[in-house]
Design goal:
Radius of gyration: 20 Å
Number of strands: 12
Largest sheet: 5 strands, antiparallel
Shape: elongated
Number of helices: 5
Order of helices and strands: EEEHEEEEHEHEHEEHE
Helix content: 10-25%
Strand order of the largest sheet: 6-3-4-5-7
Length: 255
């Protein structure tokens, strides 16, 4: 049975009011949705640091008004491209949603068909968004290290920004795969949490940027860097010959 398409939808909108940017819930007509072949009934989205900034009117939003939410999961209501049948469970992450195009903090979304992936069998939307963009990014980083030839027996793998969403998930994934993980963090109070995830060593976040010589003592077989800037430079300088770095963050500065 086809679900009827509603005439309106609810969205958390960040609007500009003079010099102030603020978020408010709005009921909007479907004409406010962006262009795209696929109309999606959104059931879940995730919340991460970027979304938190966006809701406060800071950070990643490129225009206003805008619906934040850099990922979403839900079911297809209509697809003009014919790629997805109504009722198909889909996931969307990336592609500038919640940044340059309205994102997942709404009851409906519209997107291009090629941006979507089908919900994997045996999972549901709640699971997908509990993993979220952060977990997906962490898995891509671990896969990139493995593709580059980094193996558990090669030595320590450094994870920077270790207590964040990407970093913490990367630690858990690397540890489960048999890697020896060193966590770099500016939150020493999270040491017990990081060790529970599987980190065997903890270093302060100031230690990696302090490695300023072009070639430092070789230490890391691999690096998952979520920070960028001087942290990334120090990680590069102290990575072993034939090691590899998966770079996925610019919290410190552009890489």
């Amino acid at each position: 049975m086809t679900t009827p398409t509603p005439d309106t939808y609810r969205a958390l909108r960040v609007i500009q009011d003079g010099d102030e940017k603020r978020a408010e819930l709005q009921t909007l007509p479907l004409s406010e949705l962006p262009e795209g072949e696929v109309l999606i009934a959104v059931s879940h989205s995730s919340l991460n640091y970027k979304d938190g900034l966006a809701v406060t009117g800071k950070g990643i939003l490129r225009q206003w008004p805008m619906t934040p939410g850099i990922d979403l999961a839900g079911t297809v209501l209509d697809d003009a491209s014919g790629t997805y049948a109504p009722g198909t469970a889909v996931i969307l992450t990336g592609w500038g949603i919640g940044e340059r195009q309205d994102g997942g903090y709404a009851t409906l979304a519209r997107a291009r068909a090629e941006w979507l992936v089908r919900q994997p069998a045996g999972t549901d939307a709640a699971w997908a968004m509990s993993v979220g963009t952060a977990g997906f990014t962490a898995m891509l980083a671990v896969m990139a290290l493995e593709d580059a030839g980094v193996r558990p027996g090669h030595g320590e793998v450094l994870v920077t920004g270790a207590a964040g969403g990407v970093g913490s998930t990367a630690i858990a994934l690397l540890s489960a795969a048999g890697f020896t993980v060193t966590a770099s963090t500016g939150r020493p109070e999270e040491e017990a949490y990081l060790r529970e995830l599987g980190a065997s060593g903890i270093i302060g976040r100031e230690e990696v940027p302090a490695l300023k010589r072009p070639l430092e003592k070789e230490r890391w077989a691999g690096v998952v860097d979520t920070v960028g800037g001087e942290t990334l430079a120090g990680a590069y300088a102290s990575t072993r010959t034939h090691g590899a770095l998966a770079v996925c963050g610019i919290a410190g500065a552009p890489a």
